[in-house]
Amino acid sequence: MKPSEMATSWICGICGKPLEILTVNFAYMRGNFEVDIPACRACDLVLVPDELATGGFVEAERILEDK
Ligand SMILES: [Zn+2]
Question: Which of 43, 44, 47, 54 could crosslink 38 through cysteines, CB 3.0-4.6 Å?
Fold first, then answer.
């Protein structure tokens, strides 16, 4: 799927409104960062991209190994 199609075709699964590209603050263990991702203003649903979720797991695993 192309990024442009992802941004325009996604519908909120909760309220059925089209998702907007919003800048969302993510808080992980090592701090905060901002990402532009599809989100629903009406009910605060946020679509977390796979690469972002995977990155979080990688970061968490690396911290555990540091112990
Ligand atoms: Zn919604």
Answer: 47
pLDDT value for 33 = 77
Residue 38 near residue 20 (C-beta atoms within 8 A):
yes
Q: Is 47 helix (H, G, I), strand (E, B) or coil?
A: coil
pLDDT for position 8: 56
Report the alpha-carbon distance of residue 14 to residue 12 in Å, rounded.
Answer: 5
What's the gap in Å between 49 CA and the centre of ligand 1? 17
At 12 the three-state DSSP class reads coil
Q: Which residues of the chain have pLDDT under 50?
A: 7
Indicate the number of domains in the chain. 1
Domain containing 8 equals: 3-65
CA 9 to ligand 1 centroid distance, Å:
14
